[in-house]
């Protein structure tokens, strides 16, 4: 499923009307019927429903929804927020159809007092106020209406996106948008649904098709949700005659006296994800502790100084199919030398954690690198790579991911809620699993290992990464849904959850 910007949606509407022949009035009618089919899964005729209508296309959708629900016996009041003369175009056409069908709306401008008196009596409020057209602050009377709605106990269902949230995820300073329990997004979800704080206003998102043909979406910036169907169709399947070499020989370089567990969690996750043979290279001073924690791995001790790597010496890379570097390796000069040395090699390379810290000093080398490179930054690490604020990264997750991945020719995994996987040619895949239980030390090491394990078995790098991110988040979702809370999940719980998750998945494939 696509994810689109407001500009792409407007352009698709234009193409649908001018080149394909689907008028805005027709699409609005389609939208109303699709929305009502979804609403009837959640509401009953006995409930009192308020539909809040704005001046633009979102308001036009509201008139269609109101007409259909009323014709089916639902108890619906329509409240029109703008002055009567502000409603124009396709929205005005559907307002007139609503009136000719024998129904009458209430106008906020002449019934302001009654609106606030009636509002607490509604059990369902349907938000069709602003849609994707908002720019800047929420103006009066919308700001007052939204503030009142957010204080109600009613179920709030937003159409397309919660009013006050821009399609790109911008939220006005000092103002709060509609806080919806559910959002019915039209045709395709918008990018703002996957960035915070905007995403926190959407509630549960459902998508409805309003009949715009795929041909109308011509943007070369491909953004897709990575969902269960995609995982099922791309997970690697083992040949009965395979052996450990068939599933990848990987080298993990990491660890230090302060962080012995990080590379071991990466190794454990890689093995659980199906890697054939994993070697862990650690500073020699921590080898006994590391080796005791995992029997299945092979080990390569490397020279150390004060508990960390002391130089760029490393095992023969020709023995491996890929290398992962960074988990727990520390920020000393020896660790930096290792990252620099690896950037000079063409072997597939995953850089995580402290490896990303050092990478910021070698971006010119990264740009020249020929081999497959996977970077797995969280927002803070991304901000360091870009020399910008974390806030800027979080507000522009799609843009900064794409720009960086294309410029440096890397696969970029920007972690966080709705992790974005971006390919070197700019395609983007948004993950749909995971929750706040993953906000804990070690989760990133486990994700790096899961990605590493999958990439060792799959020559399609993007699907390997996206599947790993999906599995990592899906396990967290299962844990919280069954035996855990958001507070108590540990990184090792995710590792231990890989077998059951994959077993269930392969049973469904």
The proportion of residues in beta strands is: 15-25%
Mean pLDDT: 95
CATH topology of the largest domain: UDP-N-acetylmuramoyl-L-alanine:D-glutamate ligase
For the secondary structure, the number of strands is 19
Rg measurement, Å:
26 Å
Which structural category do the helix and sheet elements fall into?
alpha/beta
Helix tally equals 18
Strand order of the largest sheet: 8-19-18-17-16-15-14-9-10-11
Largest sheet: 10 strands, mixed
Q: Give the overall shape, derived from the CA principal axes.
A: elongated
Given as residue ranges, the uncertain stretches (5+ residues, pLDDT < 50) are none
CATH superfamily of the largest domain: Ribokinase
Quickly count the domains: 2
Q: Considering DSSP H and I runs of 4 or more, what fraction of the residues is helical?
A: 25-40%
> Between the first and last Cα atoms, what is the distance in angstroms?
20 Å
| CATH class category of the largest domain | Alpha Beta
CATH architecture of the largest domain: 3-Layer(aba) Sandwich
Oligomer: single chain
Describe this structure in words.
It is a single chain. The protein folds into two domains: 212 residues, YjeF N-terminal domain (Rossmann fold, 3-Layer(aba) Sandwich), CATH 3.40.50; 280 residues, UDP-N-acetylmuramoyl-L-alanine:D-glutamate ligase, CATH 3.40.1190.20. Helix content is 40%, strand content 16%. The strands form three sheets. Strands 8-19-18-17-16-15-14-9-10-11 form a ten-stranded mixed beta sheet, with helices on both faces. Strand 2, helix 4 and strand 3 form a beta-alpha-beta unit. The chain starts with 5 loop residues before the first helix and ends with a helix. Homotetramer.
């Amino acid at each position: 499923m696509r994810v689109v910007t407001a500009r792409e949606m407007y352009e698709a509407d234009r193409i649908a009307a001018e080149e394909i022949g689907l008028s805005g009035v027709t699409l609005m009618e389609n939208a109303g019927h699709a929305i009502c089919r979804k609403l009837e899964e959640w509401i009953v005729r006995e409930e009192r429903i308020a539909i809040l209508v704005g001046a633009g296309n979102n308001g036009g959708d509201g008139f269609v929804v109101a007409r259909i629900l009323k014709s089916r016996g639902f108890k619906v009041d329509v409240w029109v927020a703008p002055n009567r003369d502000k409603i124009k175009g396709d929205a005005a056409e559907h307002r007139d159809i609503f009136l000719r069908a024998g129904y009458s709306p209430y106008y906020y401008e002449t019934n302001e007092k009654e609106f606030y008196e009636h509002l607490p009596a509604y059990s369902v409020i349907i938000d069709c106020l602003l849609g994707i057209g908002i720019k800047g602050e929420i103006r009066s009377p919308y700001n007052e209406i939204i503030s009142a709605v957010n204080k109600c106990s009613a179920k709030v269902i937003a159409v397309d996106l919660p009013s006050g949230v821009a399609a790109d995820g911008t939220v006005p300073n000092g103002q709060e948008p509609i806080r919806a329990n559910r959002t019915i997004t039209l045709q395709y979800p918008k990018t703002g649904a996957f960035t915070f704080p905007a995403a926190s206003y959407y509630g549960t998102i459902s998508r409805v098709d309003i009949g715009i043909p795929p041909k109308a979406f011509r943007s070369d910036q491909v953004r897709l949700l990575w969902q269960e169907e995609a995982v099922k169709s791309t997970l690697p399947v083992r040949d009965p005659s395979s052996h450990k070499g068939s599933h990848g020989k990987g080298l993990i370089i990491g660890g230090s006296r302060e962080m012995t567990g990080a590379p071991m969690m990466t190794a454990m996750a890689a093995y659980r994800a199906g890697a054939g043979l994993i070697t862990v290279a650690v500073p020699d001073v921590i080898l006994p502790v590391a080796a005791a924690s995992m029997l299945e791995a092979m080990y390569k001790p490397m020279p150390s100084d004060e508990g960390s790597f002391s130089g760029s010496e490393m095992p023969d890379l020709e023995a491996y199919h890929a290398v992962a570097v960074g988990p727990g390796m520390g920020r000393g000069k020896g660790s930096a030398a290792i990252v620099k040395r690896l950037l000079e090699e063409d072997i597939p390379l995953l850089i995580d954690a402290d490896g990303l810290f050092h990478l910021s000093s070698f971006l010119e080398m990264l740009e020249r690198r020929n081999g497959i490179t996977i970077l797995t930054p969280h927002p803070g690490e991304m901000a360091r790579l870009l020399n910008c604020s974390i806030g800027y990264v979080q507000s522009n997750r799609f843009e900064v991911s794409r720009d960086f991945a294309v410029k440096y020719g890397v696969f970029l995994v920007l972690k966080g809620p709705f992790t974005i996987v971006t390919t070197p040619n700019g395609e983007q895949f948004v993950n749909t699993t995971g929750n706040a239980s993953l906000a804990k030390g070690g989760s990133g090491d486990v994700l790096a290992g899961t990605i590493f394990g999958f990439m060792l078995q799959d020559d399609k790098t993007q699907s390997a990464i996206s599947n790993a991110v999906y599995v990592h988040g899906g396990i967290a979702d299962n844990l919280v849904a069954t035996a855990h809370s958001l507070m108590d999940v540990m990184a090792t719980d995710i590792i231990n959850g890989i077998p059951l998750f994959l077993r269930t998945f392969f049973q469904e494939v």
